[in-house]
UDP-3-O-(3-hydroxymyristoyl)glucosamine N-acyltransferase (Halosquirtibacter laminarini), 1035 residues
Amino acid sequence: MKFTAQDIATIIDGTVDGDKNTIIKNVSKIDDSAPETLAFLANTNYTHHIYTTQASVVLVKNDFTPDKPLQCTLIRVKDPYTAIATLLNAYAEMQPQKVGIENPSYMAKSATIGDDIYLGAFAYIGENVTIGNNVKIYPNTYIGDNTVIGDNCIIYAGVKVYPQSHIGQNCIIHAGAVLGSDGFGFAPTKDGSYKKIAQIGNVKLEDNVEIGANTTIDCATMGSTVIKQGVKLDNLVQIAHNVVIGENTVIASQSGVAGSTKVGSNCIFAGQVGVAGHLKIGNHTTLAAQAGIMSDVDENQTLFGTPAMDVKQAFRIEAVKRKLPDLRRDLNSLSKKIKSLDLDL
Amino acid sequence: MKFTAQDIATIIDGTVDGDKNTIIKNVSKIDDSAPETLAFLANTNYTHHIYTTQASVVLVKNDFTPDKPLQCTLIRVKDPYTAIATLLNAYAEMQPQKVGIENPSYMAKSATIGDDIYLGAFAYIGENVTIGNNVKIYPNTYIGDNTVIGDNCIIYAGVKVYPQSHIGQNCIIHAGAVLGSDGFGFAPTKDGSYKKIAQIGNVKLEDNVEIGANTTIDCATMGSTVIKQGVKLDNLVQIAHNVVIGENTVIASQSGVAGSTKVGSNCIFAGQVGVAGHLKIGNHTTLAAQAGIMSDVDENQTLFGTPAMDVKQAFRIEAVKRKLPDLRRDLNSLSKKIKSLDLDL
Amino acid sequence: MKFTAQDIATIIDGTVDGDKNTIIKNVSKIDDSAPETLAFLANTNYTHHIYTTQASVVLVKNDFTPDKPLQCTLIRVKDPYTAIATLLNAYAEMQPQKVGIENPSYMAKSATIGDDIYLGAFAYIGENVTIGNNVKIYPNTYIGDNTVIGDNCIIYAGVKVYPQSHIGQNCIIHAGAVLGSDGFGFAPTKDGSYKKIAQIGNVKLEDNVEIGANTTIDCATMGSTVIKQGVKLDNLVQIAHNVVIGENTVIASQSGVAGSTKVGSNCIFAGQVGVAGHLKIGNHTTLAAQAGIMSDVDENQTLFGTPAMDVKQAFRIEAVKRKLPDLRRDLNSLSKKIKSLDLDL
């Protein structure tokens, strides 16, 4: 990686204030920088660091006016956060891309693959699998029979996809994720043991879905467990059988959604949230970290706690709860006072 | 898949009410159906859909009496839920089964395998491993040295079984599960660092156990971590070293049981439950989702919350807790009243 | 395994009280023992078992004085717990060690490896990977391009290490763990969908780190997610992008630390803890199981609950909370009394 300040400015639609030929070889933080790096100043709490930073180039807002002399070259942009995101993506796209088929890998003769794919060593492609163009399948991955994978997907190392799964276009599945494992369905018997109920459905991911590392999505008992387009699931998330996750919903790490629950679109679940089974969660719902949802949720709610309630109400209650020993003491003291009054009556 | 209504009725011990030769090629939901499918009506809230469903055949209870004319053929059964479970299992058993040894796979010469096994490509069988008859080991699976696997087990893709593990008969282990990883055992040292304590025990699964995707079960420090017969663990469950899970206990996703805890038989843990170490949990215990168990639990309890308590008590407390701001206000107003009374005394 | 009592005593710096040639072939628990085994007596609640144990040899404290005749040979040591840890480690070291390169495995020509390594079948070593001496890489493992692994590391089966990772010396990574998956970073767009922000940083493990099975550690957006020396992470832990975990901090199973949070050194997190993003957790912090941390934490705190608070305060509050229905009733009864007083005024 080696760019001039002007190269960077061109990518992010900025203007150079200083030497356009300043060389950048890496990125750094403004308060933990090195020469020949690019830093950015987006949070004004960090402004004082710009006068001492060793970074050669700093991204700043268009209206930044230094109070003192600067050692660094500036690149002025409308919004440094957006600029850095653009830059990261541009950098990522410049990296060499894996392509070709490594050996040994395993592909059933009945499988069909598109153009420009990468198939890592020890990847396994089952019978009748269909893989689109420009798909990357990293090493040690298992794609079960009859699975369909759309164009431009990236399946990272060690992903396990059970048979009959459908994966849309532009999906990213991170290492160790499991798609299509059996739903947790058992019928109790008279002797206290459980009889397995076969799970013959599948998992369906629509387009532009990203699935985190070691996340698990069970197949449906019948039909499909559906992850709609634009959904982003973080690491170690559990999606149970027959669940539907609505468009553009994002779910943070270690959250779980139990069987047959329908989650609306554009929801945000923070980490370690739990949602019980057979519920409906409305669109634009926000669930705070560790929330536990035990009943249906209307649209546009922001909930906290277990059992979850409106976040503002929850914090009003929490404020009183934290003073419960005082409240108990106040009540006892009132009670004594009343008793003494009683004597007077 | 192509059956007549009579074929289905025979499998599930039902009687056809209508054309016995009606063709079924798939299953559907009664309210989201298509021609040539089989739907079922078990929940009476859905009864009205039977008059408009496009499903060709609908499973109903023996005593179902339509109010209006029906387009569909009926199959009458004692219990539609049981019938559908029977049907799902029959369907699953009809699917072609994997058998044979795919290449490349790795089997130590000292390993012994039974008849009719499936060994997927990139599966690894270590030294002195013993595998029973009719076992299916999917691709990219690792079976460590000296492990024993009983008859009729299914080990899905990417499962990792550490050396010395014992797996009984008829067990199912889902993709990505790990059996036998080191228990989390460290001795603090004077400088604040930790010294690892070797974990030389193993994991033992009895018969008819099912383990979910990406679930982890640590080996014992000495002896065995034991999962007794009929236990069902969902996805992403953590079982720590030296734990014993009693017969027919079922544990839902993302729950964890800490070291040396003994869980009784026929317990039900909902999702995201946490149980501390060195505890005894009695038989027939039910733990609500996200419960946190910090002390021993007697038999036949149903617990909720952290620290967990009896579920009825918990909900009585929760009801008052939700009115805490009102309670505080009432107390303040009483307090004022008393003060004014004081003046009069 | 076959030792004499004297062999054992030599390893753990103890003295034999009885027949020095007593044969031991295995270990057992003092209350669940068998002949030719070694048990230990560390907890005085178990003392009575020593008179009936079938173990041939029992480890006891130096000052142990039996009340009755014993069948077993004793080995007297300063501290039985430490002795057993020493013994376990000695036993583990005596086991045959894997060494050599199994086939088929995959190593890029540009990769360099040290002496005495074990590379299991179906392990994948990418371009420009550097692996130190005496490293063990178990089957079905993926080591991405440009990764560096220090001496004496053990990488168990099915571990996935993304490109550019740095792993120090003497690290142990358990089966199924994922290092370097993309941080969960997305920018919302006007239509409600999310645009991925490329994550170009890496994961850095310092020396003597142990990572549990199926644990996930995301790479940094830029720079490194850092796990400092001596850190021990249990199974199914989530560490998000740009997090720093301080030296010798131990984190139990199913805990999660959200993005950019800095955790101090020598902290102890119990199981299922959640820490929000962009926080600072001071050194020597202890977090109780299922604690939810929503703001910065000073040094030397012990916290409980969600939102977390000082554990002693939390239990004082919990005690009153458990009596909330009584408190409500007391208040109502007082209120009635006041009303009746009012009438008299």
About this structure: Residues 324-344 of chain A form the longest helix (21 residues).
